[in-house]
# Entry
Amino acid sequence: MKINSLFYEEFKEDILKCTLCPHQCILYPNKTGICRVRQNIKGEMYSLNYNDVTSIALDPMEKKPLFHFHPGEKILSLGTWGCNLKCPFCQNYEIAQLKPPYQKKIYPNAIPSLMENYDVQGVAYTYSEPIVWYEFVLDSSREVKYANPDNYNVLVTNGFINEKPLRLMLQYIDAMNIDLKVYSDKNYVKILKGGLEPVKRTIKIAYEEGIHTEVTTLVVPKVNDNLDELEEEFSWLANISKDIPLHLSRYFPAFEYNEPPTDINFLEKAYELAKKYLNFVYLGNILSSAHEDTYCPDCGTLLIQRKGYDIKIENLNENGECKNCGRKICIV
Ligand code: SF4
# Structure
């Protein structure tokens, strides 16, 4: 189903400018933007993927990954097709960079009853890029909140969005995991076809607006496996808050990128470096569950033990404080 886009303006007669993300694509009649899901049809901009659901699953919250938001709960996860970045190592390229032949048609007003069927309180917009699914995510997240204000919405996103649409969407969003893919504007532009500053702005705004914010960096050989550059990222993040959880994930070959998987020793070094700046750092996509547990940054008490998706919450009181020293832990 096509639906009118919310963010565009006329550029010249019959030519439109999309203002949803920093690409600001100029669309001639019938053309689609870089994301392939917004099209100029007779002088109006349409979202082409409005109620196209390519993936639907009940996932552990930790799979998003969100380690400090409703730990151990399950969340209804929905994805569509399309993306506004072009990462050559895309781990979900079948839906992000290609259009799968079949999509389930689901309308936003059906989401609350789907949640009831799955017996969950939250929805994650994930797998492909929710920014280019904007109108659906906005409508669905509103329905989710109207059904019950205690329900929650989660975005798993690349963060490459303009400020105005971001702020409008955030009114219904409770938590975000934002990819900070490489701490170099040059490589964001050259390799990913995006830009660093808009992603940094999204992280900052999300945190300042009180959205529970976690950040993921997929460590990719020859893209961002550079400790000096990673240290700049850690330091920048710590300046916003040392308590923002950071997930350093191991890359595996996918889509158009064939470098071998990230060296575990390098990931360990990056982990140790990140810990100098940030209180909560986790390693993901590795077989061992070392570096997945949560410890109190003040007294070192084990707070949450994770073995894969087996979660044990220990030593945290009802107010989210360490039972041993009383330190407030950023866990929702
Ligand atoms: S959302 Fe799509 S069409 Fe709009 S500016 Fe971004 S890439 Fe271009």
Remarks:
- Residues 18, 20-21, 23-25, 33-35, 38, 84, 132 surround iron/sulfur cluster (CB under 6 Å).
